[in-house]
Amino acid sequence: MEKEYDLNSLPDFITKDKLNELLPEALERFEGFVLGEGSEEEECFEIWVGDEAFVLSVWDEEGGDRSGRCSASLYRTIKNNLWEWRETDSSQYVTLFSWSK
After folding, report:
1. Which run of H or of E encompasses 92?
2. Where do the structural domains in the chain lie, given as residue ranges?
3. How does pLDDT run across 49-72, given as a tens digit for each residue?
4. Beta bridge mates, 79
């Protein structure tokens, strides 16, 4: 497992404190994905820090069997006031972890 992020070079949507707070859950989700026996190519999870939601996307770049590189990236969410839900903003993200067999 490799750490991919740099605390001194984060995108605008996340602070060091918030990232440090959500890292344990993000790592647990990523390890569960990598070590799991599922065949999903990608899974997404909401992670909350206080009243702010983020989306953790974990995926297998080789197609679902965990035989190649897997990554975990964090995205911010934005509230869609028209429909009263949150959407993932994919314009900025930070890759947190990667793993290769």
Report:
1. strand 85-99
2. 2-99
3. 998 999 999 999 887 788 889 999
4. 86
